[in-house]
Amino acid sequence: MSATRYTYLGPAGTFTEAALRTLPEAATRELVPVASVPAALDAVRAGQAGGAFVAVENSVEGPVTATSDELVNGTPLMIYREVLLPITFALLVRPGTSLDAIKTVTSHPVAQPQVRRWLSANLPDAQWEAASSNADGARLVQEGRCDAAFAGEFAAALYGLEVLVSDVNDEANATTRFLLVGRPGRVSSPTGLDKTSMVVWLPDDHPGALLELLQEFAVRGINLMRIESRPTGEGMGSYCFLIDCEGHLSERRVSEALMGLKRICPQVRFLGSYPRADHGGRRPVRPGTSDADFAAASDWLARCLDGRGEI
Amino acid sequence: MSATRYTYLGPAGTFTEAALRTLPEAATRELVPVASVPAALDAVRAGQAGGAFVAVENSVEGPVTATSDELVNGTPLMIYREVLLPITFALLVRPGTSLDAIKTVTSHPVAQPQVRRWLSANLPDAQWEAASSNADGARLVQEGRCDAAFAGEFAAALYGLEVLVSDVNDEANATTRFLLVGRPGRVSSPTGLDKTSMVVWLPDDHPGALLELLQEFAVRGINLMRIESRPTGEGMGSYCFLIDCEGHLSERRVSEALMGLKRICPQVRFLGSYPRADHGGRRPVRPGTSDADFAAASDWLARCLDGRGEI
Amino acid sequence: MSATRYTYLGPAGTFTEAALRTLPEAATRELVPVASVPAALDAVRAGQAGGAFVAVENSVEGPVTATSDELVNGTPLMIYREVLLPITFALLVRPGTSLDAIKTVTSHPVAQPQVRRWLSANLPDAQWEAASSNADGARLVQEGRCDAAFAGEFAAALYGLEVLVSDVNDEANATTRFLLVGRPGRVSSPTGLDKTSMVVWLPDDHPGALLELLQEFAVRGINLMRIESRPTGEGMGSYCFLIDCEGHLSERRVSEALMGLKRICPQVRFLGSYPRADHGGRRPVRPGTSDADFAAASDWLARCLDGRGEI
Amino acid sequence: MSATRYTYLGPAGTFTEAALRTLPEAATRELVPVASVPAALDAVRAGQAGGAFVAVENSVEGPVTATSDELVNGTPLMIYREVLLPITFALLVRPGTSLDAIKTVTSHPVAQPQVRRWLSANLPDAQWEAASSNADGARLVQEGRCDAAFAGEFAAALYGLEVLVSDVNDEANATTRFLLVGRPGRVSSPTGLDKTSMVVWLPDDHPGALLELLQEFAVRGINLMRIESRPTGEGMGSYCFLIDCEGHLSERRVSEALMGLKRICPQVRFLGSYPRADHGGRRPVRPGTSDADFAAASDWLARCLDGRGEI
């Protein structure tokens, strides 16, 4: 059954798979590794999978632009969940390989900046080669095409490798954020600690447009959590923005802000409201912007129209 | 019948009466001059009159603070109409008085700045005395307590005076704006060229509050037409603001802005939406802020919640 | 000697005189009461007085528009000092007059709203008449033209009257703010707790201009203390703004903001930087906006231009 | 001589080399291909090269994050020139290879989205593999490790390949922007059509900080040309911003804005002011923000301090 199938960027043994398995529902889904982010999402678009699980940004390397571009372009998709996974690399080798025997090292390019310092300290002469995923790097080692691979420790067993060094990460607290993406559907109920994602295209030739866009949020007390510019493809200097903000589309402050964007921007793509994976940052909404405040103001307005604004 | 009675700042023969008579409905009302702006409005509050007609600002002298304060404080009232009246003064004297016989001149204090230059050029030695209204000044001349009064030409007949000089006004285009004020009631339908008035109290100890308040308008493309600060009476440095903005409370951009103010300010008093008396300034609403734009954005939002935002 | 002469709104015995006498330098000046605010200021303009001392606003009644208009229009003047004087009224009568013998009461119109509630409770039938000053009201009582006057208690002796009731004031903490105004001169040194006043004309036909004006202050962390709109005289709907802000023109955040206004507005009139009379509100400047922060940023910029921005 | 050496992302035959050769000074420099963006820039930092020439963004694929991260982190560098190069790909094969013989295709990952549609239409079954550069892809074809490579047409001769298909680009007007980067030095003189680049870190835990940052530009009439968020490495949700704005650091509106950022942000890295490569977009500066306006305002301020503001 396609609805019970989740695609993810494979092969098996990637951090993506490890993150996906932290979702309770993953236990009851068929998890299908695919070759690329577009492939994972196209399977969803084509109805061959109920969801696709893909990385969207890393706290060291930044956005996964393949994911951003899929969300921005083509048939619309919607985000239903996010997962944050701390990232530490293990250096995986064929059993028996020693550190000084390593001439070539591989990993996904996103991993490289996170191990670069370790590499220059410990394997200054090793040549680095790009793999299409960390797990694929492990496979290259298994096949003898490379001496060592940076990957998650969990990948060792899968590829018959051993962990030569563990906990390699230049940056403490490196984290990758993943999204569970599906076909657009009814937005699920707010949990009280939600996030809303969207893509916003700016009006042409309007220098202050980004500021105006941010003011739609600010005036309603909504904090932005992330803003990523992407080229629109219309030529150098033309950008759209992927934005994550606090709150859920069913909250009035959020819906009013999105309607504001919709009114002033040539295009807005709503990407979903979903529970936040970080539980630390719970902040009270700014005074005057809770749903209760909106409801009270709306009641007051109705009374004003009726000549009873002071009652 | 009290509902058919309109009070106005008397005595008869003031510019206020002249302005009031420009309203078609004035012909079928009992027009009652009273001694002060508060008295005019208190009659409405007490149900002894259906409306009160009072000056609110002059393009030379500025706000009529008695009117502002009545609108800000006490039992709420609502504005139903505005009238703009060009002001030119006549110098009224008892029949036969010549210019060089004038030792004392009177008028309402508001009139004085508008005739000051004329006075120093033509009657440099005359002593100016305050009258409680321009018509009252005419009465003082009639009673022989003063030699000349600045008042509307129409006051001459009423007080048995003659027009010695007409069209006295230091400033071309001096205009007074008057309001027809009543007890709060259902807001009448928009005419397409309306104005909305309100009083807004700022949150305490919040230096950027005025800016935030203005942004509630700006973000929704609403032009302010007037802002007047008034002391709250809570001590030096504490102000509230009387604001006139473009648009009608039943327009979404206006209602959303007012609800925004209501949510962030400790108090907002809605003073009415009513037809604009100036017909020249018809500007199209800013793109993205018409009621049609609001309705379209609202439809889109409903579709987004339902997973059909792109349709 | 004209430089040692200060004019003030007379006659003697007004609150203005009382406030003026709180200035240490008043002891060594010739204090000359004059008939009007314009007269007080014109004496300064004409070189007949070194300073003029005039009320500018009252915490109950609001602005003294005669003063505002003099500061806005005509030959420029500059503010050198401000004084805050708590206002309480005494009801002054000719010796022996009892409360029930009072048929007429007078005061300056500004005083009336502050005693209105007391009047309606204690002298509901007394007729109120305007005087050109509170002290002038006392004179009218002295001359027998009126039964009682609201004025400062200090006026009683001056006019041979007695205090029938003291401490009359509907609003606790009523305060009047006065300014010492002189011909423009070198701005005195900052005291660390200063205020800067100016008049700003908005660009024509630019709906967001007031917001932009306020942003010149906000972006530099400057709190506004007062904003008063005045008609420009160019017709209904055209205003300029008298603005008081925190800080001294010699502070960089203030000078940069004023230069910003000067660049975007058709006209800006600097009215002076002078010590604040309220000592309570000392707030630290917003982080990043002290003169030290400006100097550090300026040094950094010079290094940037020289390729040494990171040093 | 190291000063006359420019490094660039090699190998020879990349678009980078083609873009570099558009700079007149390239003719007199030793152009040295290196293996990575960090290597190109580290050679400059180490004094082994006078400049490094690297791609920074593509109008289809977006930022080259390796370049962004090098500019953000580590020993500071400065941008001296930018080049815009239209990008079209040629499909290069070993002489004699026909389209239906192609089983594997390679290119730099950045190229892939630009040829993806062409690939699925013309070579739907070919397997795509990543190369570390487009020229390196050509080398892989030369060595027989891959059947075809997308690269610039100019790479064919260099690697003994032939152009099977030319002008492949899914997006018309695809353009890559390159930067000439050097050690920090004196900023060169403005040309009248310049751009300024910087990195700005936001204050912690200050939700409105991005808006405030943009207001430093907006209040001075400066248009942003690009904003790219990069993770700070301090954990998920912490970003800095690479910003390109109109104007030159020696223009007052720009220097004042940068000093404003410096004052409110914990860190600002100036990356250079340099001539804009796009000549079409010459817009007049916003009224009130030219250097002449700044100079006039500054003169006015000096006169104000001296009591001669109205002269």
Count of β-strands of chain A:
15
Instruction: Give the CATH superfamily of the domain at 1-86 and 174-185 in chain A.
Output: Periplasmic binding protein-like II
SSE sequence of chain A, one letter per element: EHEHEEHEEEHEHEHEEEHEEHEH
**Largest two-chain interface:** A-D, 44 and 45 residues
Strand content bin of chain A: 25-35%
Round the Cα radius of gyration of chain A to an integer and report it. Answer: 23 Å
Mean pLDDT of chain A: 92
The CATH class designation of the domain at 1-86 and 174-185 in chain A is Alpha Beta
Helix content class of chain A: 25-40%
Backbone structural class of chain A: alpha/beta
Catalytic activity (chains A, B, C, D): prephenate + H(+) = 3-phenylpyruvate + CO2 + H2O
Pathway (chains A, B, C, D): Amino-acid biosynthesis; L-phenylalanine biosynthesis; phenylpyruvate from prephenate: step 1/1
GO molecular function (chains A, B, C, D): prephenate dehydratase activity
EC number (chains A, B, C, D): 4.2.1.51
